[in-house]
Design goal:
With 383 residues, this protein is an all-alpha fold. It has helices at 9-16, 19-46, 53-73, 77-101, 121-142, 148-165, 169-185, 190-210, 212-222, 230-242, 266-299, 303-327, 345-361, 367-377; strands at 112-114, 117-119. Keywords: Cell cycle, Cell division, Cell membrane, Cell shape, Cell wall biogenesis/degradation, Glycosyltransferase, Membrane, Peptidoglycan synthesis, Transferase, Transmembrane, Transmembrane helix.
Length: 383
Amino acid sequence: MISREQRTPFSEWWWTVDRLLLAAIVVLMLGGVILSLAASPPVATRIGLDSFHFFNRHVMFLLPSFIVLIGVSFLSPRQIRRSALVVFAVSVALIMATLLFGPEVKGSRRWITILGINIQASESAKPAFVVLAAWLFSESARRPEMPATSMAVGILLLLVTLLVMEPDFGQTMLILMSWGALFFIAGMRIVWVLGLAGVAAAGLFAAYLFVPHVAGRIKRFMNPASGDTFQVDTAMEAFSNGGWLGLGPGEGIAKRTLPDSHTDFVFAVGAEEFGIVLCLGILALYAFIVLRTLSRAYASEDLFARFAAAGLAILFGVQAAINMAVNLQLLPAKGMTLPFISYGGSSMVSLAYGVGMMLALTRHRPQIEVESASRASATPGYA
């Protein structure tokens, strides 16, 4: 047992971190291991790899992800701000390098290989961007004379422009939704929020008009007869085949033909083999993580911690909701991973970084520490 009287960094972390939230995240990670084992072998076999290639890599990425998650959860709000600034700057530089040197796959440049590792820099940019935007909004509330909101708009335009150039409209919409939610939480006028939504809708319409693969996906969603809907149709069949309790581990049919059964459509594979009951359990885990974080954020006296934790929770929850909605044919197909469930090294490590910051920002801290952080944050030049 860890005594409350111990004054070690670990004991202080253990008694201040939200252990229920941490437990839910660990359960989600373990569920990802099980579903990766169920969904990935047929994909690996089809492309001539060892049957457990993707599963082994999933587990391999899980260890550093967990280390990142726990390590980041030890950080103070000040350290989180500084780390987010560094991660965002590095991510933006890598996105620019990807646009210049990354390979083009299906009309997009989203990956760059460094030291033999494929990196999708937009994944790490997302949580860092949310934290920086939250800090700027909190500074705007404390010091109205500071052009913090304009700076927040500036980094939004920078990141969105780079993502559109890849192009990656799924991540772009996720960033815009998270930023808009933060904008609203920070107390900005509703007319500006509606204006942002209008700009996003206009951007989506422009993408429909001028980007062929975006137009194709939207047309297939609105009228399935207009194109190839094999993946979403197979995913829906998987839900139907699975019923409430599923066909049993390893008995799924959809994963034998679904090209992205271990990434975008792992939720459908889980439904077929383990049933709708498992899907509801996964949905409940995501809902618990988001709502628990939002409730802890609301109780925080520190504006930055409140905004950043809420923004990260919304980012996490919206990404999960988009993936599950695509599997259920409620949204057009997008390349969006299911947090901690889908295969993907960059995605998993970046999610661990974001969730680690959520845990750090929702830790119980003495009031004197919160007031000290707020005073320091109000000091000019503070980061």
